[in-house]
Design a protein that fits this description.
By secondary structure, this protein is α+β, with helices and mostly antiparallel strands. The protein has helices at about 1-5, 15-20, 50-55, 70-75, 105-110; strands at about 20-30, 30-40, 120, 125-130, 140-145, 150-160, 170-180, 180-185, 235-240, 245-250. Helix content is about 10%, strand content about 25%. β5 and β6 (about 150-160) form a beta hairpin.
Length: about 250
């Protein structure tokens, strides 16, 4: 059998095995290159998963927690850099360690190229329905604040089912994205860097605190930069089938 396999490449078995795949890892320290690891042929069998590849790197996975992170982008809130970030609403920020890990936030999925949100013009009066991401993983809405897309709201429907079964609450999450950085707009209206961790049951919409998100509500949909499109998201309610219904446009206030 071995000689037959080698013959298909026009050589003998001993020569054929010398052409088997291999990998080596090296580390550069103080100008000196160190050979830290090598494996060839069947020695590569354990390296087909990404974690194993990272473990063979000189510094290992080089992460203290969940290794696939964008922490330099999402952990800082304007009020207190590096404080809380996306909290329990994104597995990349604060993964649920006991139970099923939750979904990535819509912002993280967009950044990774996993989803392409449907763009919503807030000046066009309309009524919308948003499916839960557990049922429709690619569905989320981008409500423009600036016509060029440099500032917008990202809307997703999170339900306590599937990977999100252990979330503290369910409903519509509204992410404010400015300068490519996300900040969650909690329906309870509390401000500050710890807001994503406060009154978790009242973070998604609708809640007892809010069924609308407009320039006149707390929190407000007004841009911190001033100007931009006025955003009115009102009549937010949970439909029995799990979808979120809401309206866009000032006439529905």
């Amino acid at each position: 059998m071995e000689s037959e396999i080698a013959a298909t490449a026009g050589t003998d078995w001993a020569t054929f095995t010398r052409e088997a795949p291999g990998m080596s890892a090296f580390a550069l320290e103080d100008g000196v290159v160190y050979h830290t690891y090598s494996a060839f042929a069947r020695g590569l069998d354990g390296l087909w998963g990404v974690y194993q590849w990272l473990d063979r790197a000189p510094l290992g996975r080089n992460e203290s927690g969940f290794w696939m992170r964008r922490h330099d982008e999402y952990e800082a809130r304007p009020e207190d850099a590096g404080s809380v970030g996306l909290g329990a609403w994104c597995v990349l920020s604060n993964p649920i360690l006991e139970g099923r890990p939750q979904h990535l936030s819509a912002w993280a999925k967009e950044k990774l190229g996993w989803v392409k949100p449907a763009v919503i013009d807030p000046t066009v009066k309309q009524k919308l329905l948003l499916n839960p991401i557990e049922d429709s993983p690619l569905e989320c809405f981008k409500v423009l604040i600036r016509p060029d897309g440099s500032e917008y709201y990202l809307l997703e429907n999170r339900r306590k089912k599937g990977f999100d079964a252990d979330l503290s609450a369910e409903g519509l999450l509204i992410w404010h994205v400015l300068k490519d950085r996300p900040v969650l707009r909690e329906s309870h209206g509390l401000e500050g860097p710890n807001a994503p961790l406060t009154h978790l049951s009242a973070v998604p919409y609708p809640s007892d605190a809010n069924t609308a998100f407009t320039p006149d509500t707390i929190p407000s949909s007004r841009s911190p930069l001033g100007g931009g499109f006025p955003v009115h998201i009102t009549n937010i309610l949970q439909v029995p089938d799990g979808r979120i219904a809401f309206t866009i446009g000032a006439e529905f206030r």
